Amino acid sequence: xxxxxxxxxxxxVLLIKGGDWFVDGAVGIAHRFHLSELLIGATVVSIGTTLPxxxxxxxxxxxxxxxxxxxxxxxxxxxxxxxxxxxxxxxxPTSVNKKSLRLPVAAFFLAALLYAGIAYTAGNFxxxxxxxxxxxxxxxxxxxxxxxxxxxxxxxxxxxxxSAKERPLWQELAMLVxxxxxxxxxxxxxxxxxxxxxxxxxxxxSVIGLTMVALGTSLPELVxxxxxxxxxxxxxxxxxxxxxxxxxxxxVSGMAITIRPFAIPAEKTLAxxxxxxxxxxxxxxxxxxxxxxxxxxxxxxxxxxxxxLLCLYAAFTVFQFVV
Length: 323
What we know:
This protein is mainly alpha-helical. Helix content is 83%, strand content 1%.
């Protein structure tokens, strides 16, 4: 039991460092092409920080562990919003650009409604569903790039990271490659040993995916969010969280479903009904609504949002392991 735990922790470390290197390289390259701060956060950085979820869910799907594939994607949305974003909002509330958030927020809720609609009506995902989600990912990327190219770059874009200026292009490319390799290796360790630990403890794969694996693969988002807030780049931070949540639906789930279609896990029940349908999916909508709707209306994040979201995440975690 000790060896799987140590390898599981090693997987966490590799994911953290791999995500960190990948994001640094991606941001440096994006700055070279003078992309706006929000574009970097909602696309390049979001893709980079979502790579752990992509690798974990894809490998889990290939191995037939549909519970981890499902739990990691949905759990990461809940973790990103009610733990990572909540912590940064509770510590340092900040103003945001309402107009820049409309497209990613609308795209997330559209994709989430489609995902939930399939889950509630069919109870399982077919391969064409996965291909549809991947097409939505491609469409979102095209729309976002077109939108940002038509908007003038903000003042924050001009304040490029000095360290990024000093790095040569080959080094940034190397960080992308090494970061991706570390993420792939870490994801493999996380899935294989997380499954062993779950089996030894008698915990369903979906619970491990919704909690431990989701938290581990969301650590790059936490590092990015904290760093962005320290540097007072709220667009990068919030854009990264919302973009990563969207990508968890359309890219992470899309890849996993395309590799191996699966049914909604039903190991955990509540009042004789599937707990995933009663708790996990509804909570995903609730936490995103609490984060995004007041922000879109008032143009700023408030401390109460972070506190409420943190309470919801604590209750969700207790529910997964106790009920």
